[in-house]
Amino acid sequence: MTNHELRLDCEEFLHHEAELLDDKRLHDWFELLTEDIEYLVPRRVTRERGSERSEFSGKGFLYRDDHGTLSTRVERFDNDYAWAENPPSRTRRFVSNVRASELSNNEADDVAVKSNLLLYRSQGDTADHDLIVGEREDRLRRVDGEFKLAKRTVYLDQTVLATRNLSFFL
Amino acid sequence: MATGTIQEDVPDRVQSIIDDVGKVSETGEIPTRIHNDSEIFELERDRVFGESWVFIGHESEIPEAGDYAKRYIADNPVIFVRDENDEIRVLFDACRHRGTTVVRAEQGNTTHFRCPYHNWTYKNTGELVGVPHKEQCYQELDTCEYALQSPPQVDTYAGLVFACLSEDTPPLEEYLGDFRWYLDIAMNFAEGGLEVVGEPIRWEADTSWKIAADNFTGDAYHVPAAHKSTMDLDIFPSDLTALAGNRTSLDVIDCGGHSCSFSYFEESPGGYPEEIYSDDHLSELQYKIAKNHVSIVGTVFPNLSFNNTLKNADPDNRELTKFLTIRKWQPVAPDKTQIWNWILVPKNASEEFKEQAYDTGITTFSVSGNFEVDDFAVWDGITEAAGSSFTRRSNRQSNYQMNMDEMGDAEDISDEWDGPGTVINSAFEDGTMRTFYQSWYRTMTGQRIDGSDDNSEHRGA
């Protein structure tokens, strides 16, 4: 498979995933995850240029989830009392700048995919909206001829998040 | 850096609202307007945040000499730094020359702060040590007079560093007073103390800082409503909540102007490994509560809240786990608050447990926390309606009368209780919040929050 074909396959997966999330088909989205999924959103920290320490925290996280905690979140959104998403956020995910490469030394036949995410969110009886922007580094795994998401790290472009809560997935 | 006593005139409309808040312990009501009003907001920035002890950060965030973090006292930028002599300082972040901020990152480590504008340079103690071309053009400048300024009072309790912009406010020990008895249960129970994990998570919500601080004094009433989904899913199992029959639920409705709420069983419901506990700072009763509580939640007036609580991020696969969340509700605008969320864990616990506790914390009580996201969805509605013209013209009141007087069966058990403060034997009552607003009224009228100088001499009245 050429790298071009690989990228197209990965893009197709990411676009499909975004559609499921935007359409609130969270249980279908959950089916895209491997059982050993790692879902990470590290805290970004404003640091001086040249700082030896990474801008992205190794200890502070906005999400550090696995299959079980993600399952609990998905189930909770089915509940009428999950006010954070009742009424639901109107989200639109724009996924772009997709870069894919086969992982070397790759026993599990995984693919490394980077993409940019622009997530528009508006909610409630208002014209306001929030924008959540970042880069994602994913690990996609081929399972029975289909891609599954085995790991996602979202590198956000804000250190102080301008949205009242993260009641959705990135 | 003392602001001195503020004597500006207060418009009658605003003074009347403030005075109404002062009657909350009799009426059980406050004018809804205080939750979104620009004149009140301007005034409280000076009076509440200028005269109170405000939380800056935890010692464990800056463990090494030279470690610093940028923090805020309301709208005042400050540097939270451990200097080269290992002393923790809070410095007002403005160059003494033209006044730009000298710290431009959020955290880091440095021996010196150099102003980017004209390169005036300060040691991490605040001392001015570099003025470019001084011999040519600033010969008479006495650098000793131009150190970075420090708030007149800085002090520490159990690793928590506070600063106060006024020199007239009582020292921290007195300001926290007997309330430390309860703070000790929440954060002084572990051998070796607690430590912050990672960096505080920060985000902004369209609500008033007071609504969040009010909620954290102990609004058990909203839990079965706003957080019903978490009870349905056993993130917070129903048999642990105020609906459970066999737990002791107490509200400390006034303890020196601060308030909190806690509940505990006769046996431990789990949450921390047994070996982390230490009774060095605790009486027998405090130790029992520390081990057996479901949560102890409260607010140190004005904007520091804490909740040591038991939650489960994944009821099918994990265990109920305790963690301490500390909040700073930083006022940004009448209808905007920056939320700062620190998760603390016992320093001497295993790395495995620390991760488990941290993950439980951020998965339930943070910007993505499946318990707390529902609060943020409700609080901005209060601010929206509070800022409306109908609220203003009708002088609308918010209700804090739950279990007050003849409303219910809750009883004052302070006499038989072995801890300090005024204590009520119910979590379903609003006294904790009435005290928060009473402290707000007192600081807005130049009084001490504990009422010790209640001479009814109101400023600007």
Task: Report on this structure.
The complex is a heterodimer of chains A (170) and B (461). With 170 residues, chain A is α+β, with helices and mostly antiparallel strands. Chain A has a single domain, classed as Nuclear Transport Factor 2, Chain: A (Roll), CATH 3.10.450. Chain A is 21% helix and 44% strand. Chain A has 3 helices and 7 strands. Chain A has a 6-stranded mixed beta sheet. In chain A, strand 5 and strand 6 form a beta hairpin. Chain A starts with a helix and ends in a 9-residue tail after the last strand. The model of chain A has no long low-confidence stretch (mean pLDDT 95). By secondary structure, chain B is α+β, with helices and mostly antiparallel strands. Chain B has 2 domains: 101 residues, Rieske Iron-sulfur Protein, CATH 2.102.10; 267 residues, Alpha-Beta Complex (Naphthalene 1,2-dioxygenase Alpha Subunit, Chain A, domain 1), CATH 3.90.380. Helices cover 26% and strands 26% of the residues of chain B. Chain B contains 14 helices and 21 strands. In chain B, strands 12, 13, 14, 15, 16, 17, 18, 19 and 21 form a 9-stranded antiparallel beta sheet that branches. A 4-stranded antiparallel beta sheet of chain B has the order 5-4-3-6, with no helix packed on it. In chain B, a hairpin with a 3-residue loop joins strand 16 and strand 17. In chain B, helix 6 packs across helix 10. The interface between A and B is large, with 40 and 47 residues.
> Based on CA inertia axes, which overall geometry of chain A fits?
globular
Name the shape of chain B in a single word.
Answer: globular
Helix and strand run of chain A: HHEEHEEEEE
Q: Helicity range of the residues of chain A?
A: 10-25%
- What is the fold-level CATH name, i.e. the topology of chain A? Nuclear Transport Factor 2, Chain: A
The oligomeric state is: heterodimer
Number of strands of chain A: 7
Distance from N terminus to C terminus of chain B (CA atoms, Å) equals 25 Å
**What is the helical fraction of chain B, as a range of percent?**
25-40%
CATH class of the largest domain in chain B reads: Alpha Beta
**If you compute it from the alpha carbons, what radius of gyration of chain B comes out, rounded to the nearest whole angstrom?**
23 Å
> In the CATH scheme, what's the topology name of the largest domain in chain B?
Naphthalene 1,2-dioxygenase Alpha Subunit, Chain A, domain 1
Low-confidence stretches of chain B: 1-5, 457-461
